[in-house]
Amino acid sequence: LGAENELLKPIWHAFTALDLDKSGKVSKSQLKVLSHNLCTVMRIPHDPVALEEHFKHDDQGPVSTQGYMPYLNKFILDKVQDNFDRQDFNRMCWTLCARKNLNRTHLLISDEDAFKIWCIFNFLSEEKYPLAIVTEEIEYFLRKLTEAMGGSWVEERFEDYKLELSIKQQSLSAWELITLVGRGTFSKGMDRQTLSMGITEVFHELILDVFKQGYMMKKGHKRKNWTERWFLLRPDSISYYVSEDLAEKKGDILLDGNCCVESLPDKEGKKCLFYVKCSDKSYEINASDKKRKQEWIQAIQMCLSLLQLGRTVPHRESLQKRRDLRQKQQAEQEELELRMRELQTANENKQHQLEAMRKKLEEAATNAAEEERIRLQTQTEQQDRYRMDLEREKMVRQEMEEQVAQKSSELEQYLQRVHELEDMYHRLEDALEDEKRARQDEETVRRLQARLLEEEAVKRAELEQIHLHQQRAISETEVEKQELRKEGTAKENALQAAMLQLEQLEKERQGALEQYQEVVQKLEDAANNTRTWKHKVAHHEGLVRLVQPGSKGPQKITNWGPAAFTEAELSLRKKDWQERKRKTGLFIHRHQGCVH
């Protein structure tokens, strides 16, 4: 995937260079030319019909990068073998994009140096499109370039530039990086040749994976003579050329895990010797001085260690580490931003809640103030009302005190009246007792009258029996009549005696009736006296109601006084009295007839 990304970056430059109107799309004819050139430099069999076949259903005209990528992957990248020259591939893509984007005004570098910076940009840029190189990688490249030129790195100058860059965009495009280096912003005091050599050295290290390069003497295997060669140390080989232009390559020393490098003692008039021992050959090399000898030995030992450990070249490994670190930092930054947004959202929610609470508090304060005003107003009104009530109560109390004084006077009068009523009650009780005794006397007289009536009835019955005997005697013979006359005379005498007794009884009855009337009069006087006391009590105080003795039924007045008999008894007595009176009248009439 890393090798494929390294190929996609130059292709992206070529594709965007063909997009003349910057619409994000390229015509099919231009894509045919680009695809043919890619297949040529990458040594892939080219199928001219494949592009047409791939886009035969696409009638939209120009093709975007997203539309071109499936074809690129299927017909080109998937068929790539590691048998082509990457520099030819890079130069082909560079040629397509440099004509459109490279501004040569005020540049201190050649097109070749610009091409090398472009390749370095593709190596160090982020693996996302549009391609850009971040500040950290710019600093890394400029440091390498300064060291390659033999200069000293000025941290303050780059910090100022980084501050200026961060205000704008915090990253550069390939053409902005070329302009930055080409105008000598960070190479002041250096000539063009030194700058070009520095760019070439960094290009060799980062792009061609050249760990070290330089002139050294090499001992031949056949003639055993010493010849000066230009050596290039790569991760898995040491190549040597006739000169530094790399025009004529004389051979390669292939490195593997079984190779080793060791220092040799001086001999044959040569100093600073070392040799590289491989499985099939050993190579003796003479450095120009001890420092270069030690640098070459350490560099070769580092390559052998990487081969033994199976690791990639250091600058690629460090690049990947920096990218991983940036991705991690970016992820952390995104997570931090997400948390910050969440916190900001939570803070905004809190602010809204606080604002709502503040509004509620203000409303509550307003309501409380209004309630307090209403309460104070109500309290003032209540105080006024209480004051008026208090004054009214004072007036009422004064009236009550006056009424109490009046009631006290009335109470004294009432107590006096109560004492008078008590005396009246005692007198009333005496009157009731007199009435009770009168009623007892009435009952006694009534019983006496009843006994006299019974005796009168008995006498009347005897007179009737006598009258019946007289009637029977009259109807007998004359003799008997004489006898009867005698007997009649005797009976007349007896009758007269009976009449005398009857008159006596009538007198006694009359006397009893007079006694009864006297008792009734006493009873009426007692009742009148009771009513009089009742009227007096009712007149003096309307609170006491006396209970009258006697029957609960209606009061009846008879010949023998009030409440002597019931209505039924009076009716029976009246009928009995009339019957007896009638019979007595008949008896007297018959007796008088017999006498006559």
Automatic annotation (TrEMBL):
Residues in coiled coil: 315-529
A GO-annotated cellular component: nucleus
Transmembrane portions of the chain: none
Entry's Gene Ontology molecular function annotations: DNA binding
Taxonomic lineage: Eukaryota, Metazoa, Chordata, Craniata, Vertebrata
Organism whose genome encodes this protein: Salmo trutta (Brown trout)
The name this protein goes by in its record: Switch-associated protein 70
A Pfam family per the record: EF-hand_SWAP70_N
CDD domains reported in the protein's UniProt record: PH_SWAP-70
PH domain segment(s): 209-305
The keyword NADP is assigned to this record: no
InterPro entries the UniProt entry points to: EF-hand-dom_pair (IPR011992), EF-hand_SWAP70_N (IPR057836), PH-like_dom_sf (IPR011993), PH_domain (IPR001849), PH_SWAP70 (IPR057837)
Keywords linked to the UniProt accession: Cell membrane, Cell projection, Coiled coil, Cytoplasm, DNA-binding, Membrane, Nucleus, Phosphoprotein
Function, in words: Phosphatidylinositol 3,4,5-trisphosphate-dependent guanine nucleotide exchange factor (GEF) which, independently of RAS, transduces signals from tyrosine kinase receptors to RAC. It also mediates signaling of membrane ruffling. Regulates the actin cytoskeleton as an effector or adapter protein in response to agonist stimulated phosphatidylinositol (3,4)-bisphosphate production and cell protrusion.
Record's subunit section: The SWAP complex consists of NPM1, NCL, PARP1 and SWAP70.
Location(s) in or outside the cell: Cell membrane; Cell projection, Lamellipodium; Cytoplasm; Nucleus
